[in-house]
């Protein structure tokens, strides 16, 4: 047989062989940690006999540790109670022992070296150290020799966790797990975990590894390995179910308990993972207000009222964060909800919405029972029973001139007149009305808003103005020009107070009335009126000194058919033209020159375009004086041609229609009209000139062809004649 100590030499992870001396553990703490304290650093693997003794934490000298460290006796976790400064001390050497009451050491000492990590370094994960046990965090293998692992790391399975070696070539490995677990070993001595582990299902495994030869004989006793499944913080706190709303009376003092939260954590009760603390998330404190409406006790979860008062009728949803791992970094959390309803008490006195009403003017002949004013009071309480009000006249009603009417459940009270008023007896009244709560008031007493003052002015009665008729009628032809006089409205008594007249309900804007004289005239042409139609307006007459004194009578207008308008030959108008696009000049139109009344001082002419919509769209006519008007284009562009523009000229009841001839043409840059030139009689056109030229060229061509043909034929005849036939020249 091979000695058992050879097995220990084959491991790739360091292990201790002496029980009296445990391997030193090491852990890092970030410098100036800004999270919650205490901060849990690492779990110590205390023996099961820990319940019979007490855990003692000391320094390397054996004395009690003076640094900010402690041991949680329930979970066995080493924790730090405050932030550490690396410049003050870079590392701490601690020793942990398990002792009896009489000082006998049951376990240990376990040395622990705490390194204060520089805050500029990058933290790479959790660190743990041990000697004779392999530790696996749920679903993640963490070797007991120093190694950094990221939190919640997931790996592929099977996952290598260790290796044993036995010298020699004929070596086979066999593994047994107690209780059976997801572990395996291959032919090379590599140990594997084949699936994720669950600490709640099984917290510890004992692995036995045999080294055998090919005949199945063991080389040595089995190697025993303890595998501890460390509790992973994978269960968040579970808040209690949201129940009915908690009722809190208004004006409850600070510190009143609202509710008690009790969240549960499915992690191991002895683990810091199940240590739950509470933090209030909502409602948040208002800006600029230091006090809060609610507070929560961190460890107990008791929710109490804060110093900020609550208002009745508020429905507040409290959000409380339940955090495990004592609220430290890496813990899980859940949000608990608590609904709070603030109930009402009768702590608000009713008040009027307006403390001063009026002055209200009443004529002295107003009948008793007349409504003077309606006052409105409000109560900030929410309960209907707390909003019931009682009203009374506190002063200003010694003669019983006024009275109050109101409904029991209404906040409105009516001030009515009970007796006749007299301007001579009392030209004004000030009535003070007070409101009180029917139920007993628990808060402060009524304030200044509990009273309202109504000021009433008594007016002396003056009869309204009276006109000479109960109604007025007038007839007018639909062709009547603007300014035509229809009638005159007058008061019944010429010696009465002066009146001011106005028209009401003149929807078409056809009429106008002179404010002082009462003359009713047409304000514009009666376009759209039809013969036989009736147009009704009202004439309102107000007292010039007392505008509130007024009267109104109807005025009925009957539209008549327009009489035929005699056409006059327009006065000679110099031939004028207008440019398109439009330029700044027009045509002057004058009234009939044959009318002798114009020179005798009669009213001037009125000019208007004809009723044709196209004419009114394309042209604009502006009156220059009593005898002339100015005609221009209304559009920027019109078709260049000759236009006949109808112009209606009227004076009093007479009317003429003129036809103004206007030539619209294109103009050059100098404003001169460019008119189209027609064909001159006796002159050839372009087409005829081209025909003549082409005919001349054809005739010349034909003539040249004839000459060339004749010359060719003559020469050919001379060449065909014999030589002896040539006549001899005669000699003399």
What does this molecule look like?
The protein has 732 residues and is mainly beta. It has 6 domains: 25-117, Immunoglobulin-like (Sandwich), CATH 2.60.40; 147-230, Sandwich (Immunoglobulin-like), CATH 2.60.40; 246-343, Sandwich (Immunoglobulin-like), CATH 2.60.40; 351-454, Immunoglobulin-like; 472-560, Immunoglobulin-like; 576-590 and 605-666, Cadherins (Immunoglobulin-like), CATH 2.60.40.60. It is built from 3 helices and 45 strands. Strand 34 and strand 35 (519-522) form a beta hairpin. It is flat and about 145 Å long. Mean pLDDT is 78; it is low at 1-20, 61-65, 121-153, 567-573, 597-601 and 726-732. Residues 1-20 form the signal peptide. Residues 21-131, 171-239, 240-352, 354-467, 468-568 form the Cadherin domain.
Number of domains: 6
Structural class: mainly beta
Q: What is the assigned CATH homologous superfamily of the largest domain?
A: Cadherins
Oligomerization: single chain
Q: What is the straight-line distance between the termini? A: 178 Å
* Fraction of residues in helix: under 10%
CATH class of the largest domain: Mainly Beta
């Amino acid at each position: 047989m091979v000695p058992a100590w050879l097995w220990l030499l084959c491991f790739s992870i360091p292990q201790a062989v002496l029980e009296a001396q445990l391997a030193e553990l090491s852990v890092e703490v970030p410098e100036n940690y800004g999270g919650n304290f205490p901060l849990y650093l690492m779990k110590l693997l205390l023996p099961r006999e820990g319940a019979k003794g007490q855990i003692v934490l000391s320094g390397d000298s054996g004395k009690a540790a003076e640094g900010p460290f402690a041991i949680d006796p329930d979970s066995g976790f080493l924790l730090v109670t405050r932030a550490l400064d690396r410049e003050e001390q870079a590392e701490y050497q601690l020793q942990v022992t398990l002792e009896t009451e009489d000082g006998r050491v049951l376990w240990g000492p376990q040395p622990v070296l705490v390194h204060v990590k520089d805050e500029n370094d990058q933290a790479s994960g959790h660190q743990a150290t041990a000697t004779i046990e392999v530790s696996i965090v749920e679903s993640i293998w963490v070797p007991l020799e120093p190694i950094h692992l990221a939190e919640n790391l997931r790996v592929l399975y099977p996952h290598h966790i260790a290796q044993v070696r036995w010298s020699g070539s004929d070596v086979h490995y066999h593994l047994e797990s107690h209780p059976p677990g997801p572990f395996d070993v291959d032919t090379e001595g590599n140990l594997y975990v084949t699936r994720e582990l669950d600490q709640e299902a099984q917290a510890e495994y004992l692995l036995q590894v045999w080294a055998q030869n090919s005949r199945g004989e063991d080389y040595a006793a089995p190697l025993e390995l303890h595998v501890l499944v460390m509790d992973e913080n994978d269960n968040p706190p579970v808040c209690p179910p949201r129940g009915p709303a908690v009722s809190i009376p208004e004006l409850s003092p600070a510190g009143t308990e609202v509710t008690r939260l009790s969240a549960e954590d499915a992690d191991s009760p002895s683990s810091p993972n199940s240590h739950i603390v509470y933090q209030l998330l909502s409602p948040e404190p208002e800006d600029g207000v230091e006090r809060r409406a609610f507070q929560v006790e961190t460890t107990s979860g008791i929710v109490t009222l804060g110093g900020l008062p609550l208002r009745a009728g508020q429905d507040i949803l409290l959000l409380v964060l339940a955090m495990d791992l004592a609220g430290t970094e890496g813990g899980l959390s859940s949000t608990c909800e608590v609904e709070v309803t603030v109930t009402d008490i009768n702590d608000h006195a009713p008040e009027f919405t307006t403390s001063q009403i009026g002055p209200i003017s009443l004529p002295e002949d107003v009948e008793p029972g007349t409504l003077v004013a309606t006052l409105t009071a409000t109560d900030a309480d929410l309960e209907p029973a707390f909003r019931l009000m009682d009203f009374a006249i506190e002063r200003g009603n010694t003669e019983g001139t006024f009275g109050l009417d109101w409904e029991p459940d209404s906040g409105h009270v009516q001030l009515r007149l009970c007796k006749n008023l007299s301007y001579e007896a009392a030209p004004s009244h000030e009535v003070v009305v007070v409101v009180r709560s029917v139920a007993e008031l628990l808060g402060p007493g009524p304030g200044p808003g509990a009273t309202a003052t109504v000021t009433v002015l008594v007016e002396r009665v003056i009869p309204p103005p009276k006109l000479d008729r109960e109604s007025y009628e007038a007839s007018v032809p639909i062709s009547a020009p603007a300014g035509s006089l229809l009638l005159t409205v007058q008061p019944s008594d010429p010696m009465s107070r002066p009146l001011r007249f106005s028209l009401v309900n003149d929807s078409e804007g056809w009429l106008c009335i002179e404010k002082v004289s009462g003359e009713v005239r047409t304000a514009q042409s009666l376009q759209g009126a039809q013969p036989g139609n009736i147009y009704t307006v009202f004439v309102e007459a107000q007292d010039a000194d007392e505008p509130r004194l007024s009267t109104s009578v109807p005025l009925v207008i009957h539209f008549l058919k327009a009489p035929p308008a005699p056409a006059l030959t327009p006065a000679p108008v110099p031939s004028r033209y207008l440019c398109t696009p439009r330029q700044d000049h027009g045509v002057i139109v004058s009234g009939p020159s044959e009318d002798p009344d114009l020179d005798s001082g009669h009213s001037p002419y009125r000019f208007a375009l004809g009723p044709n919509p196209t004419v009114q769209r394309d042209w604009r006519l502006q009156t220059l004086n009593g005898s002339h008007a100015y005609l221009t284009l209304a559009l920027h562009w019109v078709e260049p041609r000759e236009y006949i523009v109808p112009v209606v000229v009227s004076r009093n009841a007479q009317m003429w229609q003129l036809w103004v001839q206007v030539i619209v043409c294109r103009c050059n840059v100098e404003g001169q009209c460019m008119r189209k030139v027609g064909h001159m009689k006796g002159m050839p056109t372009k087409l005829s000139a081209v025909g003549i030229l082409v005919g001349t060229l054809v005739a010349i061509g034909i003539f040249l062809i004839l000459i060339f043909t004749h010359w060719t034929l003559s020469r050919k005849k001379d060449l065909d004649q014999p030589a002896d036939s040539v006549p001899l020249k005669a000699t003399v």
